[in-house]
Design brief:
There is one protein chain. About 5% of the residues lie in helices and about 60% in strands. Residues about 5-40 and about 45-50 have low confidence and may be disordered. It has 1 helix and 12 strands. Strands 1-12-11-10-9-8-7-6-5-4-3-2 form a 12-stranded antiparallel beta sheet, with helices on one face. The protein has one helix spanning about 15-25; strands spanning about 1-10, 60-70, 70-85, 90-100, 105-115, 120-140, 140-160, 165-180, 195-205, 220-230, 240-255, 260-270. A hairpin with a 4-residue loop joins strand 4 (about 90-100) and strand 5 (about 105-115).
């Protein structure tokens, strides 16, 4: 599967809130297009001189309005503490976020991303819980579903240069699917109605962006290969799967206050994995 997309956004610090809101969204195994019209916090990348060190950081908070064809309109609210450890390290932060949509979907998450010693070491953590509603099409017929889930993710990476890093990741997802309404689940969904997934990944990032929170130019090439095992709590499923994802993003500063992004993503996965795992990059 290959995905090509353009994104266009106002230059603002709300990019941090977008990242935080997506942590909660990852537990749902769903994605969407997010548009922000807020410019409520400063973008650290635009400051001529940055104060370095944890104590020289600052708190940020921002709301984000979004529209998604699956979940409807929604609002995400996020807050965090940002700082830069040294001149050549990426921006680090701790944060939390929550979201809600017009179709009743909601979720929250916490997380952090730390970079230090000129990007020699990078640590990432996020955890979240979500409760979402959506339609799954089976043989052309929409089946209304409710999916609840929690996710915990931990990543550690070593940078051979400030731009090139190699890392390992570990993810645990626990999820349940029920019919949104009277009746029973279709037979093909019963084996995946309650699943626990453990996934280990090897990740490579070549990051030439000018800022990791809100880049205005440069590129990011990422590759990830994962091996996972999912087990049904009902004893109906116990299988392994493998997945590889290659992504490239190019950032363009088209005007003084706007940034355009060209993003190309390709992925492949082995047969037999639950349908929603194909949506998790």
């Amino acid at each position: 599967m290959v995905n090509v997309a353009w994104a266009f956004a106002p230059k603002s610090g709300t990019a941090l809130a977008l990242c935080l809101a997506l942590w909660a969204g990852e537990a749902t195994a769903q994605g969407g297009l997010v548009n922000s019209s807020f410019d409520t916090i400063p973008n650290p990348a635009e400051e001529e001189q940055r104060a370095l060190g944890f104590r020289q950081g600052g708190f940020v908070a921002a709301p984000i309005l979004f529209q998604d064809p699956t979940f409807g309109s929604g609002l995400a609210i996020a807050a965090g503490y940002m700082f830069q450890a040294d001149e050549r390290s990426s921006t680090s932060f701790f944060g939390l976020a929550g979201f809600g949509t017009t179709n009743g979907s909601k979720g929250f998450g916490v997380g952090s991303s730390l970079s230090f010693e000129e990007n020699t070491w990078k640590l990432k953590f996020y955890g979240g819980k979500a409760d979402i509603y959506y339609d799954l099409y089976l043989a052309g017929t929409p089946v209304p579903l409710r999916q609840e889930g929690t996710v915990v993710n931990l990543e550690a990476a070593y940078g051979v240069t400030p731009e090139l890093s190699f890392g390992l990741g570990l993810t645990n997802i626990d999820t349940s699917i029920t019919l949104d309404g009277p009746g029973a689940l279709p037979p093909e969904l019963v084996p995946v109605a309650q699943l626990n997934l453990v996934k280990a990944s090897f990740d490579v990032d070549w990051d030439r962006r000018d800022d990791s929170i809100f880049p205005t130019h440069g590129s990011l090439v990422s590759f990830s290969i994962a091996d996972g095992e999912f087990v049904s709590s009902r004893g109906l499923l116990d299988e392994r799967y493998q997945k590889a994802v290659l992504g490239w993003s190019q950032f363009y500063n088209v005007r003084a206050s706007d940034v355009a992004v060209l993003r190309v993503t390709g992925c492949t996965a082995t047969d037999g994995a639950p349908f929603f795992l194909s949506l998790i990059h």
